[in-house]
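User: Just a sanity check before I run the rest of the batch. Below are the structure tokens for the first item. I only need the designed sequence back.
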């Protein structure tokens, strides 16, 4: 039996992102993958594991073929936005057990360009089969499900719409420091509240941008770290959890599946939430950030509103910088955005954040611990990964 090995992220990259009208999703996968391999400095021949979801009839077989890979370990787990944290956990376990040596995670989407070109419409529903058949006929869209959960939190704990708007304001402040972000102009709480209503209580700026883009992450066994051109970022612990598909089966709209995945990840990493130097959190809507902060243990249940309204999420001066690149609310959101969280977390831990680089409070040193937590569906699933240097 092979002894369990330590696993590190050795390469990360984004493809061209934002407004990309002249590329296919396959091309964005390939562009991000090439850049991640170049970032790591590893030869493609070492990649014997591949994970991808969301593209092709036989994902990830078609994407692997497009990239010229013939992996002996593969994962196509698809649980929405949390897919990539779950896949990273699976990949780390496979590498640690000796089933793979180097695993590539890759994603690409032209969600924005497809809508503009008329190749697809806005995603109002995920389908009408299975348990969803009991909700879709009544117009219960994806956005409406998140909005209803947010309203429950407001009723239950007194969370205000101004507090939710603060999440968007602080995400935009972080995006202003990121030259790759789609939206960089600062906004105010009043401007968030004055926007067109999308799904009560969410106005437009409570919702993520629609963009094109891709990302790739390369994980490797510890013995390959010395051959890389980058400093390793170690996978310390992970957790995953699925909650519900039908809203009627969700026991409490104010508790996300991150309450379980986060607890498992921190326990397995042997660290506490208050030791994190930053957090990268899936933020298709402002409420996702607020409730995930609670469920990861950064504040108590029902205290998220008070926690975010004090500017704590900002890179500049914040106690817990969150979504340091601007997140899905301002940087980019090409669909299943969880892989972008891992890319940004690794960049921060390497000290490669540029103008948005997080510094530890007190001594101004580079961060040592960070967490990435992805959410899928309408709080249906969660994957959380703790990373460190």
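Assistant: Here's the designed sequence for the first item:
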């Amino acid at each position: 039996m092979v002894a369990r090995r330590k696993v590190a992220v050795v390469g990360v990259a984004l493809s061209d992102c934002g407004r990309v009208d002249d590329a296919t999703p396959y091309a964005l996968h390939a562009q991000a993958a090439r850049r991640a391999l170049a970032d790591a400095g590893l030869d493609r021949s070492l990649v014997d594991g591949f994970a991808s979801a969301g593209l092709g009839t036989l994902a990830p077989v078609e994407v692997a073929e497009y990239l010229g890979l013939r992996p002996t370990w593969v994962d196509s787990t698809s649980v929405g936005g949390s897919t990539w944290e779950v896949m990273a956990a699976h990949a780390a376990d496979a590498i640690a057990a000796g089933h793979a040596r180097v695993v590539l995670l890759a994603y690409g989407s032209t969600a924005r360009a497809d809508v503009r070109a008329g190749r697809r419409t806005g995603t109002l529903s995920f389908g009408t089969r299975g348990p969803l058949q009991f909700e879709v006929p009544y117009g219960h869209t994806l956005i409406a499900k998140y909005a209803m959960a947010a309203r429950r939190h407001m009723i239950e704990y007194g969370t205000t719409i101004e507090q939710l708007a603060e999440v968007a304001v602080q995400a935009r402040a972080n995006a202003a420091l990121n030259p790759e972000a789609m939206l960089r102009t600062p906004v105010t709480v009043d401007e968030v509240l004055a926007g067109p209503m999308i799904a009560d209580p969410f106005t437009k700026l409570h919702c993520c941008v629609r963009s094109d883009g891709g990302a790739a992450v390369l994980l490797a066994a510890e013995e390959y770290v010395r051959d890389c051109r980058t400093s390793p970022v170690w996978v310390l612990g992970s957790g995953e959890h699925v909650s519900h598909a039908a809203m009627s089966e969700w026991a409490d709209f104010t508790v996300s599946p991150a309450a379980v995945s986060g607890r498992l990840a921190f326990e397995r990493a042997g660290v506490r939430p208050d030791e994190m130097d930053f957090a990268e959190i899936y933020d298709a809507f402002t409420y996702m950030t607020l409730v995930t902060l609670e469920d990861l243990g950064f504040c108590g249940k029902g205290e998220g509103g008070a926690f975010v309204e004090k500017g704590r999420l900002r890179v500049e001066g914040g106690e817990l910088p969150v979504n340091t690149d601007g997140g899905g609310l301002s940087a980019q959101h090409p669909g299943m955005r969880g892989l972008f969280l891992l890319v940004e977390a690794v960049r921060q831990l390497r000290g490669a954040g540029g103008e948005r680089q997080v510094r530890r409070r007190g001594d101004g040193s580079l961060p040592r611990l960070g967490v990435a937590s992805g959410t899928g569906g309408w709080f249906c699933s969660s994957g959380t990964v703790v990373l460190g240097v």
